């Protein structure tokens, strides 16, 4: 039996078809439930459970871990509603939602999922292949990402089913975060921020990595890091005012369930656009 919904989408180019040929052919068509949303297939698992498309409903959160260790891990979520992928994003600034992308989803009665997400704006395509566990609480599998720079990035992931609002508690944000921001030319600037228990900035700074020269400093109360959606660990439109009058804006940030990685795209009024990757550097302030 097939359940399918579809709205108009653009066609795949030959490069994408070639890239995903093995993934597409590796999954059987019979007894597969599918949906396509715009502008994936399964087999295996135990014999005691018959999965349904509705088992995928909700938010799934985790990390995409590249096989190539030179590539960064990234926080990731995918939202599924009414049997279709409505949106997905990672902490490297990649988003698939609305009319900007085409998103397909296939799920077999054996609990095997495949989803293919393609940007309609530029090359940025992601394929997820996963097996749902018998408790219907996690998806374990592999991914292939044809990135905007043309690189093919592959790896593994485990996504867990979010319990909804509050899945990511406020305490995950609190503490000292240290890392860097990098632009499209891989030019880096070091960034550090100390956040109070409510996410308010207590102190922060941006420095040059080569000579440690101070570029921006941030005083207490200069901004606040707060969830826009605690079901997926997403913080939208985080704005920090520099002591020198500069403005640092994070379009969005994603945090992991352990509160160890925080990242997303943003722009600085003087330095330009880039992506930030921060790690927890110390215990939360008291």
Observed structural traits:
mainly beta, globular, 18 strands, Lipocalin, ten-stranded antiparallel sheet, 286 residues, single chain, 4% helix, disordered N terminus, 49% strand, eight-stranded antiparallel sheet, 2 domains
Task: Provide a descriptive summary of the structure in words.
The structure is a single chain. This protein has 286 residues and is mainly beta. The chain has two domains: 14-161, Beta Barrel (Lipocalin); 170-282, Lipocalin, CATH 2.40.128.20. It is built from two helices and 18 strands. It has helices at 14-19, 21-25; strands at 32-37, 58-66, 74-81, 84-90, 95-97, 101-108, 112-119, 125-132, 138-146, 152-161, 175-182, 188-195, 201-207, 214-218, 234-241, 247-255, 261-268, 272-282. A hairpin with a 5-residue loop joins strand 8 (125-132) and strand 9. The longest helix has 6 residues, at 14-19. The protein is globular and about 60 Å long. The termini are far apart. The relative contact order is 0.15. The model is unreliable at 1-30 and 40-46 (pLDDT under 50).
How would you briefly describe this protein structure?
The chain is mostly beta strands. It is built from two helices and 18 strands. It starts with 13 loop residues before the first helix and ends with a strand.
